[in-house]
Design goal:
- The protein is of the alpha+beta class and about 650 residues long.
- Helices cover about 35% and strands about 25% of the residues.
- The protein is built from 19 helices and 24 strands.
- The strands form seven sheets. Strands 4-3-2-1-5 form a five-stranded antiparallel β-sheet.
- The protein is elongated and about 125 Å long.
């Protein structure tokens, strides 16, 4: 005997092996068509039959179930609850065969729109209104599946459907996975063995892997676009009113920056003092004089937290119009927050002379590193006949920078760290800073990558005096009990360098206090700290009463955490695009390309000429800084990877000195 039953929503047939009990308590040990041993009770069985054979019944029933007219079946069914045999006799006639009844069971079980399940083998037809709504939904579903299949076929053929072009970015970066558009994209990607990004590039929905990397970042951090709202600006009359009472500084300031720098945040000045010595001025652009906590520009700056830098472009924290108003461009006095400190004839600082002022600073020149760096040497600074711009001032600043550096190294050593040497170039060291120049060439973008000189006299002058400014600013905030965003470094581990709202040492720099203050046009932390310092400059000991952020301000703590997370994300994006352009540099000439690399650690190596890090497992067992010639091929701009084959390994060189702290 064979039994028809339902399991997991499917209609099945099993062959009886043995029986027990009688009536409603009857039960059977049976074997399903798949060979599974099961036990069935009388209440679970829909039909019992001797012939035909179980497999033959199921084969015929599956065909018949597809031929059943569900609408006719619904019309034939009674309004009240009914059983399988009852409706089978109504639909097929009084002599409905076992395969016909089984086919009907399959059809009923698979048609919830037409029939409600009321129990095992029991059904009731759906009300007319619900049936009509269900049929309409099925029709929509059918059309959607047809559309999904059509889009999938287009994508496989390399054509991006016109109807999907407006949502291409959303499909790639933040898709609604329940839409047929995404399902079509995913199905086509699976069929081709490609990622959705690869498929969309091949179909022309996005132009290139570069657009993918940029789009992924912008979608996350600038979902509304990276352009500034032109209506958010500072009216000239408001600016003039804010700076009208500022005194004019009696200095001739100058800045030192790269050629590409447009946000000139800082400048320096040197003024001779009666009786010998000089007064050093560190002048910081002062947008904090006009931008106030909570205003429209503050909201813009706080949302962005920092200017985003990457090869070939940048996304500024503040609108260009605001940058133009406050950037320390040459030719006119600019509003600035200045720190002054006196040094004697030997270059030693008089710490008691420290002054903080909000003022208008005349900017005489914007010096550019590319134009002067090679000319500035110990000899040229001492040569009075040399026409080097600001030679005497640079000579004074250089003398002070050397003493500042020496003092920091003493503190580093006391912190248990190794002293860093000033202006010593290790011929074995890898360059750490690079300039990327991206230009159009024969209809294609070409990238040139140049190492930037670090440790030069000009570079050291800027670095040491800005470090001093940040340190002095941090001390001023700490001494007056004003909170700010301090950058601290203590101990070891991944979280040893962090942003916090209370003062703390920066052991790597050899400083007791360190607060970023020198880039308020580019970093929100610096703008926030500038507000606190302006309150101090204007109100002295009463600054705590008027400063935007009082001690233990919970909002300030949140800003510090947000800034650190955002700053890290921007840095990772910069690294990602630098890797992209490094791989473009590898691929734009011949491939495969032979270059030299240095092993760093754990099989990770860096190309000598450019800042490209690649995993090379063959070098994992070699000492740090082992030099090897490798062949790079099969560059993947989407995955940012490449195949590397080691050609030969050279004798290890002298280990590179440790990296300087952040």
């Amino acid at each position: 005997m064979h039994l028809l039953y339902e399991e997991g929503g499917d209609i099945k047939v099993a062959t009886v092996q043995s029986a027990s009990g009688s009536g409603d308590a009857e039960a059977w040990q049976a074997t399903s068509l798949s060979g599974k041993k099961i036990k069935l009770k009388a209440k679970e069985v829909w039909l019992r039959f001797e012939k035909p054979e179980a497999q033959a019944v199921m084969d015929e029933a599956k065909v018949l179930s597809k031929e059943i007219d569900l609408q006719l079946l619904w019309d034939c069914a009674p309004d009240e609850e009914f059983g399988l045999v009852d409706v089978a006799n109504e639909y097929f006639g009084s002599q409905a065969s076992i395969p016909q009844q089984t086919g009907l069971a399959i059809a009923l079980q698979g048609a919830p729109v037409f029939f409600r399940r009321k129990g095992r083998g029991r059904f009731q037809r759906a009300p007319l209104e619900q049936l009509q709504a269900g049929i309409a939904a099925l029709e929509r579903k059918k059309k959607e599946l047809e559309q999904q299949l059509a889009w999938q076929q287009d994508l496989v053929a390399g054509v991006f459907p016109e109807a999907l072009k407006s949502q291409a970015t959303q499909l790639l970066f933040s898709p609604d996975k329940n839409t047929i558009a995404y399902k079509a994209l995913l199905a086509a990607s699976t069929e081709l063995g490609e990622s959705p990004a690869q498929l969309m590039i091949r179909c022309g929905a996005i132009d290139s892997p570069l657009q993918y990397h940029q789009g992924m970042f912008l979608r996350t951090h600038f979902p509304g676009g990276s352009a500034h709202d032109e209506s958010v600006k500072i009216e000239p009359s408001i600016l003039q009113a804010a700076i009208a009472d500022l005194p004019l500084a009696q200095v001739a300031a100058f800045s030192i920056d790269d050629l590409g720098t447009t946000e000139i945040d800082d400048a320096l000045s040197v003024t001779a003092l009666e009786g010998g010595g000089h007064r050093i001025g560190i002048h910081i652009a002062a947008p904090g004089l006009v931008i106030s906590k909570g205003d429209a520009l503050d909201k813009v700056a706080r949302a962005r937290m920092s200017t985003v830098y990457f090869p070939g472009d940048k996304i500024t924290m503040l609108p260009d119009s605001v940058i133009e108003q406050f950037s320390l461009d040459e030719g006119a006095p600019r509003p600035a927050l200045s720190i002054y400190v006196d040094i004697n004839a030997e270059g030693f600082l008089n710490k008691e002379s420290l002054q903080l002022r909000a003022e208008m600073v005349p900017v005489e020149a914007n010096l550019r590193l590319e134009n002067l760096e090679y000319r500035v040497t110990e000899e040229s600074l001492l040569n009075e006949s040399d026409d080097l711009p600001f030679r005497a001032e640079l000579n004074v600043l250089w003398g002070g920078a050397k003493l500042l550096h020496a003092g920091r190294q003493e503190q580093r050593v006391s912190n248990g760290l190794r002293a860093e040497q000033l202006s010593t170039v290790d011929p074995n060291a890898l360059a750490r800073d690079f300039h990327f120049r991206i230009q159009e060439h024969d209809g294609q973008e070409r990238v040139d990558i140049f190492p930037r000189q670090r440790g030069s006299i000009l570079d050291t002058i800027v670095a040491e005096w800005m470090i001093y400014c940040n340190s002095a600013s941090g001390k001023l905030l700490a001494d007056h009990g004003l909170p700010g965003i301090f950058r601290t470094q203590k101990g070891w581990g991944p979280l040893r360098t962090r942003m916090q709202t209370t003062p703390g040492p920066h052991e790597g720099l050899g400083l007791d206090y360190y607060a970023w203050c020198t880039s308020p046009l580019r970093r929100y932390s610096d703008l926030l700290n500038q507000w606190q310092l302006i309150a101090l400059a204007k109100h002295g000991v009463a600054a705590k009463m008027v400063a935007p952020f009082p001690p233990r301000d919970a909002e300030l703590m949140g800003i510090a955490a947000d800034f650190e997370a955002c700053y890290q994300a921007y840095g990772e994006y910069q690294d990602r695009l630098e890797k992209y352009w490094c791989l473009r540099w590898i691929a734009q000439n011949e491939q495969p390309k032979s270059v030299f690399v240095r092993h760093l650690k754990e099989g990770m190596s860096r190309v000598e000429l450019i800042p490209l890090h690649l995993p090379i497992p063959e070098l994992a067992s070699h000492p740090r800084m082992t030099r090897a010639e490798v062949c790079i091929s099969d560059v993947d701009f989407l995955q940012l990877s490449a195949q590397v084959r080691v050609l030969h390994v050279e004798t290890p060189t002298v280990p590179e000195s440790d990296a300087s702290p952040a």
